Amino acid sequence: MAQVHFSNIGKTYPNGFEALKPTDFEIQQGEFAVLVGPSGCGKSTLLRMVAGLEEITSGELSIAGRIVNAIDPADRDIAMVFQNYALYPHMSVRKNIGYGLKNRGIPKAEIAAKVDEAAALLNLRDHLDSKPSQLSGGQRQRVAMGRAIVRDPALFLFDEPLSNLDAKLRHQMRIEIKALQRRLGVTSIYVTHDQVEAMTMADRIIVMNAGRIEQIGTPAEVYHDPASTFVAAFMGAPPMNLLRTRAEAGQLQLNGGALCDTAHRGEVIVGVRPEDFLPDPAGPVSMQVDIVEELGAHRLLHGKLGPETVTVHVGNEFAAEPGPLRLSVKPGAVRLFDAEAGHRI
Amino acid sequence: MKRAGFSTPWLPVLLLVPQLAIIAIFFYWPAIVALHSSFFLQDPFGFGSTFVGLDNYTNLLGSAEYRRVAVFTLTFTLLVTVFSLALALLLAVKADKVLRGAKTYRTLLMWVYAVAPPVAGFIAVILFNQSWGPLTELFALFGHTYMVGVNFNDTAFAMILASVWKQVPVNFIFFLSALQSIPRSVREAALIDNRSASGRFWDVTFPLLAPTGFFLLIINITYALFETFGIVDTVVKGEPGNNPMTLVYKVYVDGFRGNDLGGSSAQSVILMVLVLALTVFQFRLLERRIHYT
Amino acid sequence: MRKPKLSTVIDHAVLIAGSLFLMLPLLMLLQMTTIPDTEIIQTGPSLKIGDQFGDNLEKAMLQASGFSGENTGMSMLKNSFILGIGFAVGKIVIGMTAAYAIVYFRLRFATLAFWLIFTTLLLPLEVRILPSYEVVQRLGMLNTYQGLIIPLIASATATFFFRQFFRSVPEELVEAARIDGAGPVKFFVDILVPLSKTMIAAMFIIMFVYGWNQYLWPTMITTDEDMYTLVRGIKQIVQVLEGAVVPEFGRSNVLALVAVVPPVLVVVFFQSWFVKGLTESDK
Questions:
Q1: Which CATH superfamily is domain C75-281 in?
Q2: Is the ipTM of this complex over 0.85?
């Protein structure tokens, strides 16, 4: 059953700026959907439209089978976790978590029980009477989570909730949020500009760019079969190598060598993930290694392949040095994109 | 406005009504009345008024008396502004520098902020009392017989002294807070780049204080023009005579005492234009203001 | 012990000199309240601490000095408090509600309201004093507290201050509150007002001092002696001193001191709030 249904949803500001082009898709019951894209791509606008904080200028949005276009945020049966947490600074943790319940006229005893339950789930029991300013970043993040789960909503909305945390804590909270969502089984929409977060947390990723959805798919689909050069370059660190070249006589020509067979002709963009290039003395193409980046478990070789910049991912058993290096490519790993429009061929 | 503001239609109107009603009745109405009556000549016995066009204005600008008051106001404003700013800056720089007793100095240097201007004038009158005022006695040592209310310059000096005394604390508070908001790293970088303390002050600290200084300049000019009314009135003891007075004081004297409503209104309008010009000047400069943050 | 550096000595000397410059005049006033009037006429202020302070205080606070016999120090003190507190409270209530409407609501005529309100920042009461007086007179509000207080509120300083503060409150707070089911009134009462506590305190101190120290407006609006404030009373004090055979310096100096003490105490005790309010209001 589709929990959230976007039917031709679009957003045009009064000044004529089209922040979101009409969009159609569904999010399933219990699914963890991640909206990812660079800043200004419209992902936050889309999320805020779901929350009811931003007016929907075209199309219909339904949550749990009910059209909510004209419904107040408070009545949409959603909960939201904000980037800066938006905790009420003058209220204790207990009151912060319980405020939404209190406004719904739920009896005090019930609120107390629910707040206790949420606090136990989030390891916040010892901090219930602290003010937000007395908490660490990670704890504040948990309070914001608590405020969302205590309401037991039909839909969780996350607006870049981890971007104010340091790298280590971010990693930990990523796992916690995902585990919590699994456990509660609540449908979630999660906005981030961090593709690692998107890859690791999502059941399905929605990649956005310039007010448009570029691709919707599982993390593996988006990673291995990007629908466009934009997705190829945005997902993955380091990103997919994109090399402009020609297909001639049934073969892809790259820096004087024939990379692989192809049915295509003319100018194309070749996409190869860094780990899909293999050092191979008998390989068809040759790159010039300029810098070897040592990462412990593996190494990244940065250099040139003809006029184009490339990055190659090798294991730590491969002793690389600056200089020429012959490469082959894993079978089936080459992706081709239209040289003009950038879409997948 | 907040991007997710409320869209309740009647509540904001209800919230704005008290403010709008008060300013309509006590701001816009009087301002319009002033503008209106500045074009009329009021009958001294209260039998109506006659439209006289710009006569009130031309009379004013042609009046030697008005020009004299304007020149005094200008001099007075200049002196009060310069001295209170300079003194406050000196004290703020020192108070920012010392480690011991910084808090005590801060308190001692700012509490005069709370003293009402007429009390400052009242104290000046005591200090310059004809027969035993301590400052009168000090001037007597130098052979000058000090006569507040009789000698023009003596009276003017007493006014300026009281006005500066009253204004130093405000400027001090602003300068000190500006100094304390200069990042530590900037001071440390300056310490490494420049050996001389005075060089550091003029090259680094002073330019960083410029926005505050400029803001204070406007505040001080407004203060000297308007808020010193209480000082002027107490120092001249309510007897303008040939004593120095500011433009605002003259508005009050001509309109309230002399019943020259048209002339007084014209003076009000001239002051309004002056303040508007000052504000426009301020905004203009603020836009291009040396913003370092 | 280490010898202090010369520059440190100079710093302290400058600060002490500055402090004395600001303090001595009021200490002199204080000294003069402790000696009999007859002595003042002969010697003026001196270093002697006399024993007349109690008598002078009693005379100033409890005995009337005017013609009607109604403006004792006590009644003036009461009026000053009414003006100071009434002005501060009125200004804050009106400023906060107006700023709330401007910042947090979608309003069709918001820009117009904004400009109507903020133009009032441009023209101080002093330049429109006579027509303002006429308006108050026409409304029959001479010698009333309303006439004293309300026209002084007709400027947008507090509105501007709260607008600046509300704009600095994170956007997400109102969004979170809306999702939590708080309407505009609940958000204001439950969240915005508690959040503004420090700002309200700072504004209150500044406005209290400003209202307390008003001179020109009370001078014009109050002619009944039982409506005089302490600061307004200064004018009369000076005039009485001029005419009398044995001027009552003791009484008048006590009144001047009483006019100064409450605002000074407020500023000194709530110093950090006061400084914060003052320096942040004008950014």
A1: MetI-like (1.10.3720.10)
A2: yes
